[in-house]
Amino acid sequence: MFKKYFLSCMTVMLCSNFSNALSTSGFLGPAYPIPQNLSFNPTIQAANQAFLNIITTSLASGTSTHGDFDNSSTAFSFEFYSSSSAEPIFQYHFSPPILTNISQGVKEVDRDTIYRIGSITKLLTVYTSLISDGDRNFNQPITKWVPELLSDGVDDESGKDPVSRPKWEEVTIGALASHMAGIGSECKLFKSRSV
Fold this sequence. Notes:
Elements: H1 2-25, H2 42-61, E1 63-64, E2 67-68, E3 76-80, E4 90-94, H3 120-133, H4 173-177
Antiparallel strand pairs: 1-2, 3-4
């Protein structure tokens, strides 16, 4: 009898504590408001200053903790943003001395400078995909997500030419991510339609 009474009391206590925890902090823990005005936060300001010190020291010495740094011909920009503000939390733009003597392009780097960054965005896309989904979809054909590729070029002569029309049903996400898909640089993707 005592055991039944004890278990009933414990169950009621646990349930009430559990429902109280859910009502105050949610199942996954407390929900905090999205930070606002981060550029005025003392911790962010201290981090900005520390990063600025690292940049200016590296530029002055030509070395960093990661090795030598070419401060005579390397242009770069940093801008860090918060999702709660359109203005950057931190920005720094460096124009190397070599830019003063060029005949084309910009002489001073600023926030409107267009950088030719090459293929780095492909890496960021692949890394983001790996972080969020892992590699479970890497062996799936791309046509699972873009079925329109199956009908591209089928109605004309180019559909028979493997150079003009890749076999999309055989191209996987992993093959695209590793540049092993066999797609030529001049692939006529959706040539008959505007994309």
